[in-house]
Design a protein that fits this description.
The chain starts with a helix and ends in a 7-residue tail after the last helix. The protein contains five helices and five strands. It has one domain: 3-Layer(aba) Sandwich (Rossmann fold). The longest helix has 16 residues. The protein is an alpha/beta fold. The chain is globular and about 40 Å long. The strands form two sheets. Strands 3-4-5 form a three-stranded parallel β-sheet, with helices on both faces. Helices cover 36% and strands 15% of the residues. Helix 3 links the parallel strand 3 and strand 4.
Length: 160
């Protein structure tokens, strides 16, 4: 998703298997910095590795930082996991703005997608400040909306 957002093919390393990001990777854009943290969703790694990732993320968020926005990636094909929901609660309780990038929307047919989008909106209805954006790194759908929100959070005017 970082590559698609920044219109770069290979800035951020990618893999077809989830869980390849094992450290925090930073991307300095001048007007803001992206921090790519390890995910926890569907990675096939040991419990101890997932625990290490959780501690890494917790340490990152508990340091004093000017975090303007967290873009949390969730696979639209699946319901949010307990870990996803816990992270959203942590972010909202901490006053950190959050956007949910509901990825892989291109992998669903129209009926399945509509159903999943409704489920996501229902799941996060209690948090109206959270924007859920169906998106695809493959075809670029939703990327412009995510980028607009990032630029807004960074107080950067969008170039026409």
């Amino acid at each position: 998703m970082i590559n698609r957002l920044l219109s770069r093919k290979s800035l951020a390393r990618t893999s077809s298997a989830p869980g390849k990001t094992a450290t925090i990777n930073f991307y300095n854009l001048g007007f803001c910095r992206f921090a790519d943290l390890p995910g926890y969703g569907y990675a096939k790694v040991s419990k101890s590795e997932k625990l290490r990732w959780a501690e890494l993320a917790e340490g990152y968020f508990h340091q004093t930082r000017d975090i303007r926005l967290v873009v949390q990636l969730m696979d639209l094909r699946h319901a949010p996991t307990q870990d996803d929901l816990q992270m959203v609660r942590f972010l909202t309780d901490s006053g950190i703005p959050c956007l949910i990038a509901a990825t892989k929307c291109d992998k669903l047919n129209k009926t399945g997608r509509r159903s999943q989008e409704e489920m996501y909106r229902s799941e996060f209805a209690a948090c109206p400040e959270i924007m859920v954006v169906p998106c695809s790194a493959v075809n670029g759908e939703g990327v412009e909306a995510i980028l607009k929100r990032i630029l807004s959070a960074c107080d950067v005017e969008e170039k026409q």
